Known about the structure:
Layout lengths: L3 H11 L6 H13 L2 H17 L1 E2 L6 E2 L5 H4 L7 E5 L2 H10 L5 E4 L17 H8 L6 E4 L5 H14 L4 E4 L15 H9 L2 E2 L1
The chain binds zinc ion (ZN).
Zinc ion binds next to helix 4.
Amino acid sequence: MYTPPLARLIEQFQRLPGIGPKTAQRLALYILKRPEKDIEAFAQALLNAKKQVGVCQTCFHLSATSICDICSHPKRQQDTICVVADSKDVIALEKTREYRGKYHVLGGVISPMDGIGPEQLTIQKLVQRASEDEITEVILAINPSVEGETTTLYIGQLLRPFVKVTRIAFGLPMGGDLEYADEVTLARALEGRREL
Ligand code: ZN
């Protein structure tokens, strides 16, 4: 149906999340119509992002530098850490502009079914950070799924002996996702946090 290089391009698009065969075909045909320099810039951006973006050594948020912009920002509150499962949750919370503290990205949630225990996440480093003198509050902002709940309770138990631990109130149903919450809901959830 397609000449081989075009088939390979369509196949690559189809591997992306949320892209079906029709969209993959449309994108591939669009690419063929673009000037070569646009495509070069696109390809270069893909490679550069992959090569240059790693994680912050402190909070594990995606960053092209060893310490991310949030961790190194002098005006961010130094005494609060907000714990999230994934970098996309940091981005969602930043969009609310409600939160001025720091973050900690776990890299997932505890899920024995998927073989993810506490040691696969950045929990040890979180305990280390939370035990530093300047930290007065740790806010847990993990998606309210069964695994998220397990993770929240586990971390709460670890940190409670030496720091105030709160969790955000969800105006979201169980199984909801921080990423898809609108900004107002997310901002309210943050305001309505309570001690764990
Ligand atoms: Zn950081």
